[in-house]
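forwarding from the other thread:

> can someone predict this with zinc ion?

sure thing
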Amino acid sequence: MKQADLINSSKNWKEDYEHENGNYMCHCRLCKQSFLGHKRRVMCKECTERQVIGTLIEGEHPDEIYPRAATWLEERRNWMREVAILKQEIENLKNQS
Ligand SMILES: [Zn+2]
């Protein structure tokens, strides 16, 4: 794997980077690919998400759920952005009065 591919991989645990030992190159037990994250991690982020989602929705294969979950996560992110905008607008109104 090229260095740039590894750095930009969605398999990485970016939230680990700020922690001590959080920027190691690890190998995923499931997909056997490299990812960056805490040195104790055994699974990449993608495989972990698949597993978590797979156990949440019973009777469906994780590979079928994952694309829908990605859409759901994107919708949630958009929603959170809108909440942030609304909060800001409320703050602005407070400051005006
Ligand atoms: Zn993996």
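The beta strands are 24-27, 34-37. thats all i got for now
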